[in-house]
Design goal:
Order of helices and strands: HHHHHHEHEEEHHHH
Strand content: 5-15%
Largest sheet: 4 strands, mixed
Structural class: alpha+beta
Distance between the termini: 57 Å
Shape: elongated
Radius of gyration: 29 Å
């Protein structure tokens, strides 16, 4: 017998809770309400359920019943309200035969930003939606979900972007009793997606994060200056190497140029310059 993945094991647990839901006395009461609202005496067949979809979604009374009454019962078992409605009204409904996630809460990855510059938000939302990620703008304790109406349209151009560390964060929502191994897989996926999104926004993202000993020499290397005067490099050499050595001047001159270039490139890639 093949070993189940953590995600498949979680699905099995959901089906177990669904089986317990079907034994509930409250489900029978709920079924009577639903049939009465839809003016039926018998449960739907699978074909009837599909054919009468439009009739159901245009009934305010039915929508209220699903979003309130079905939700109340579903929350006790961790089952989505729409799945409760189908358990009530569809004869022989078996969620394990389909691919839909029937949990009332589901594992998800969200992109959260506090940087509210309009062009950046448009670009971030465009790229995130193409990666199937929701974007949330956070202002203090208030959170707003951002939606771009046509994410597949013309690609937004980003002229100025915030420092990489303040661009956005990724947040995971993990349901109660979600298998730890599946949560770990979700975390790995979140890291991969975060990297992809950063690259799409134009940030340079190294394969591995390494520290640099050159950072301690930032002031002496005058990293904040894009160009130096004619003898600028030699002035830095004098500060770095207290003991003068004419024979080593050219080597030290080239070494300082390389060090300065590397640390400036590092800072530029991180968005600090």
């Amino acid at each position: 017998m093949a070993k189940l993945s953590p995600e498949e094991r979680n699905q099995r647990l959901l089906f177990e809770r669904f089986a317990a839901l079907k034994q509930s006395k409250d489900l029978k009461k709920l079924r009577k309400q639903g049939l009465l609202i839809l003016h039926r005496q018998k449960m739907f067949t699978g074909t009837e359920w599909v054919d009468q979809h439009q009739q159901r979604i245009t009934s305010r009374e039915y929508i209220y019943w699903v979003n309130n009454e079905c939700k109340k019962l579903g929350d006790l078992f961790g089952i989505a309200s729409w799945a409760v409605a189908m358990a009530c009204l569809v004869r022989g409904y078996r969620p394990e035969k389909g691919d839909l996630y029937i949990g009332s809460d589901w594992p998800r990855i969200e992109v959260v930003t506090e940087f509210d510059e309009p062009k950046f938000l448009k670009k971030l939302t465009y790229e995130a939606q193409n990666l199937h990620l929701p974007v949330i703008l956070k202002r203090g304790s208030e959170e707003t979900h951002l939606i771009l109406v046509s994410p597949t349209g013309e690609k937004p151009v980003l002229v100025k972007k915030p420092f990489i560390h303040s661009a956005f964060t990724t947040r995971m929502a993990i349901p109660v009793r979600y298998p730890p191994e599946a949560a770990r897989n979700l975390q790995r996926r979140a890291i991969r997606i975060q990297r992809k999104l950063l690259i799409r926004l134009g940030y340079s993202v190294p394969q591995r994060i390494r520290t640099s000993s050159l950072v301690t020499q930032v002031s002496k290397l005058k990293v904040n200056k894009s160009s130096l005067p004619q003898r600028g490099i030699y002035e830095i050499v004098v500060k770095l190497y207290k003991e003068g050595d004419i024979a080593q001047d050219e080597i030290r001159h080239n070494a300082v140029k390389v060090m300065r270039h590397r640390i400036r490139k590092r800072f530029k890639n991180a968005g600090y310059l």
